[in-house]
Amino acid sequence: MTETVLEEKKIDEKWEPKIIAFLCNWCSYAGADLAGVSRIQYPPNIRIVRVPCSGRVNPYFIIKSLVDGWDGVVVSGCHPGDCHYISGNLVARRRFAILKELLEFFGIEPGRVNFMWASAAEGERFAVLIRKVTKIVKELGPNTKFQKEWC
Amino acid sequence: MGIETDNKEIISSIRENAKLLLSENQVDVIIGYSEGTVPLSSTPIIIRKEEDVDKLIWNNLCYINLARYLAPLMPQLCDSEGNSLKIGIVAKGCVGRAVNLLAVEKQIDLDNIKMIGFNCNGIVNRSKIDLEIGEKEILDVSISGDDIIVKGHNWEKKFPYDQYINELCKVCQIKSPSATDANCIGECQELESIHDEFSDIAEFESKSADEKWAYIKDALQVCTLCYSCRQACPMCYCNLCFVDQNMPTWFGKTTQFTDIFTFHLIRAQHLAGRCVACGACSSVCPVGIDLNIITRKLEKIAKERFDYTSGLNAETIPPMMDFKMEDEEEFMLEED
Amino acid sequence: MDQKRLKKDQIGKLYNELVGEYDFYAPINKKGNIAFEKIENPEDIVLDYLNSKIPPKSVLFPQNEVLFEYTLDEKDVEITDRQDLEQKILIFGIRPCDAYSFELFANFFSFHGDWKDDIYLKKKENTTLIGIGCNTPKTTCFCTSVNGNPFKKDNMDVFLTDLGDTYLVEGISDKGKGMVQKLSWLSDASKDDLKKAEELAKIAEESITTKIDVDTVVKNLETCFEHPVWDEISESCIGCGSCAYLCPTCTCFDVIDETDHYNNRGRRIRIWDTCQSCLYTLETSGHNPRDTKIQRCRNRIMHKFSYYPTNYDLLGCVGCGRCVYVCPANNDLRVILDKINKIEEKEDEKVVA
Which domains does chain A have, with CATH numbers? Predict the structure, then answer.
């Protein structure tokens, strides 16, 4: 895909971002499920990967997703204090803080990588935040900084 | 005074202490620096006998962080059963930091380590000098007074010492190991915390995203992914580095910019709050990439976010091994 | 007459004449490092360099080389082979030691003619080397000890000698002679020029003072596989791969696949590998026969000074000295070889580990 095609894509109204979501099994995945069964609408741009805990998310998962062509990443876990594994999300939070700072330091758009908390009871919140993420990534346009060159 | 006399004093104190340790059988081996065979270099050396201590030197080109040889412990430092020998290690401030941090991370047993501390007076920035000399062969580098004298065929050039040391050394505040007399002989200090401004990094951070990206792209594009920076890093001791994990292979190993950038980004992530700011990664780079900006940023994150400076003692747990309920989470998404 | 003169300001003219026919590679200064790159502006060419940081093997054996690409549709896979192998390549301003390294490459990539690497061999066949003698070899150079010479012309097609304000141009191979003849605007060289070139060659050869008794090294290596000297040699090594990556004779490579899932395509890439990496010999079972840096260091020396002579009757080192000045721990190859040379004396007591 050439630069010009991507440029066109950027101005294309119909372009939809592809966003990968790492959701923890115990809260956010159930939250997404609740949003579904409660028929709360949220954009279909996200593809969900279920992980045991937000602490399982290696920062390289996030970067690898961007390298592999996703336009945005969102990681969601249980609220602090509610982690099924007691402190997995607290460990993850420090990691995310650093990743976020480093990405910004290197000049990557901060909105590419997003973190949120959503419990199993918060279907509405989940949908609202996913709408927000989709809006942020859509405004950023396609992810080109991580793309490899193909001829 | 002057750097030249400083160095002489440092050398004699190192040799004296090394001799003492060996003669009293406090240590079996001593890791230190010896004279290099080419200009702008030095060779790490293992001393086993008292009469060899005169091979130990200090000359502002000793950029390798000797703690590198402790974790994983190389076979030359083990006895026939694979247990660690008693090791003496010539320690500038950042070697001391690395030793402390390795002890916190349970990679070494401090009982086996005896540091030979001294007040480091900085490391010469090799690539900066190389770059300025250009395509002329350097035959000799020496320090006279406060100048670095570089000589070649029929030419000689002077570099003021304070301008041609590593950026990290210019702002360094931990010049001798932060340790107690129990595991350090010679110069040492017990530091509680240090005060650092990070004005250099703040300046970079104030640039626009595009400017930052352009700078990083330009700086890293010559990288050959030889992993010298990883190998020279005292804190990069993983049995299997993420780039080497191959079941399945998930790290791209080509020298396309994406792969280079990913490597440096994730390596930075792994070193956050653990980097000891020795600058070895930049000094050993065969193509002269300056990674100091990343090093400084990591120190800034640790200091400002977690009020932590790595390697000040062998007890405080580094931020990435720890967590607090009330950690800041201003970056988390919230409903509007 | 095969000897001509090229004025230094005529490099641009030479470039313009040849660039249509050839991909023109020459040394340029890339952020302080000399490397061979495809030239777009002849003014970028640096010929008064000591030696390139990145060896010219990168032209014919690049660090990443796409072997083929493929695209997928619902039923079929379509493979696109390399199309550019017929393109003529010109490497301008290569040093004799680096040109000699291609002789070793020819052996490696065709292993006595039994297995042939078409991609490399075809590219090499279409390559013309215009070399330049080293008037001032570095103190780390030791090519004279390993069958080389700062003015060795054997592997070149055309050879240049820097005479101050002009270059002496000599056609060496038939290909090179033809090329020199085609460049009809070159003026003939005078007898003085030839004499001067000879003198320069003599001075250069004499200025290489490092002498290594390589025959003894090769002989000693046959018996010292388990010798404790390797403990000592690998002591300061930090296990990076700079020596191998910047070595003009290191040929080891790894092959990786890259897929672009979302666009249904992929490619197979050959990348440089190094025996200093822990992954190099790792087996699928998890066993690693070369697990410590002692063994890896040994392999590097053994490969160049023992396996190469055994397999190809050639030394695997051209004496360029790159590994000597690039080693971050200053684990000097000359010192290593010296240590191996000295084994002999102790050998009477026969050390068996």
Answer: 15-138 (3.40.50)
